[in-house]
Structure formats: C-alpha cells, structure tokens
Design a protein that fits this description.
17 strands, 3-stranded mixed sheet, 14-stranded mixed sheet, mainly beta, globular
C-alpha cells in the first residue's frame, strides 16, 4: 500500500511557511482522567467522555473533542534533526476528522501539571509552555492502522519534565517512537495557538 502522508517528520524550522499562519484555539478545562492502555502506548481518557476540552482549527469550525492523551519516548517528531526525550500527544476527534497537538518533552525541572495529570485530575492547558507558536502539517496517526488525513500541530517550545515523570507517563512502553518519514511535497505552515482552561 502507498502511504504518502505519514507521520512523524523531521521539522526543518527554516522551511516553515509563514505566509499562511494557522490560528487554532484550544480549550482545556480541569478534568478527571482514567488510564487507557494499548499495545502501543500508555495514555489517559477524560471521564466522562468529552469533558477534557476541545480544539477548533479555524474560526467558525466545529470543535474536535479531546479523546485522549498519550506519550512517546523518545520524541516522534524531530526538530531541526534533533530528537527530544519524549512527546505528548493530545488527540482530538470529531467524526472522521482528527487533529493531534504534540508537545515535545525535555528532561529538566519537575512539572506540577504533569503531577496532577498522573493523579488523574488536571487541565491539559497547564502543560502548555509560555510560547504559543507551533507548526502544522497534514500527516497520519503514528500507531496502527496509521490512518491518514490527520492535522498535526507541533509546539516548537519543549515542555520540561523530570526523568521520573517521563517514565511514569510512558509506563511500560519505552522506546515506542515511530520512525521519521519524508515530508515529500507536503508543506509545513506556521501556527499561533490560543489556549485557555475554560469550558
């Protein structure tokens, strides 16, 4: 089978197109979370479903609800050829539309927002770094069946976590990053995120 639009990719920051800037808005309220395991990664789902927040890709667009978040280690996306310690994916779905917001993780200071999420209570908005710049491209899921037509938003500023926190997020699924694919004729655009913790 031919899969021309696969993820992850190596993001070359010098080629990010700034003439087309996307303005997605994320609303991530405080929520309760429940562990969700799979053969590919450890993650959590909001309880009840739909309570974890949503993403709007553009003005007037229908929101895509948060269905889960999960973590890969090391990072799946490379940034200027550099692979990070980990990558947290917030998965949003509305019918047949899927969008993933990726937060690259770096080993550093203890992250209070991660502690709360590991205790199964917290807002994903608290994870966001101070910067709100990102890039976006069209790709795929990174776990089977690798479905395409996924709109990715990869935040450029890494989020600091401790090594212990990263290990807790990944669980028994260390070294679960998928290999990098060629961008091909796809375009990577700049994005400016709007994030709040409200409903």
């Amino acid at each position: 089978m031919n899969y021309p639009q696969q993820s992850p990719i190596d993001i070359d920051s010098s080629t990010i197109r700034t003439s087309e800037v996307w303005h997605p808005s994320c609303s991530y309220p405080d929520a309760r979370w429940q562990e969700r395991d799979s053969p590919f990664n450890a993650g959590m789902v909001p309880v009840p479903a739909g309570s974890g927040g949503h993403l709007r890709i553009g003005d007037g667009s229908e929101p895509l609800a948060v269905v889960e978040f999960h973590t890969h280690a090391p990072s799946e996306h490379l940034w200027d050829g550099v692979q990070g310690a980990g990558e947290l994916h917030i998965v949003h779905v509305d019918g047949d539309r899927t969008s993933v917001l990726a937060l690259r993780l770096a080993i550093g200071r203890r992250n209070a927002a991660v502690d709360r999420l590991l205790e199964r209570q917290g807002a994903l908005s608290a994870l966001m770094p101070p910067g709100r710049t990102a890039c976006t491209y069209l790709g795929s899921r990174t776990t089977p069946p690798f479905g395409q037509e996924v709109r990715w938003f990869v935040v450029d500023e890494a989020v600091e976590v401790t090594d212990a926190q990263l290990r807790a997020l990944v669980g028994e699924h260390a070294e679960n990053a998928r290999r990098v694919f060629d961008l091909g004729d796809r375009v990577v655009d700049a994005a400016a995120l709007e994030v709040d913790g409200g409903p």
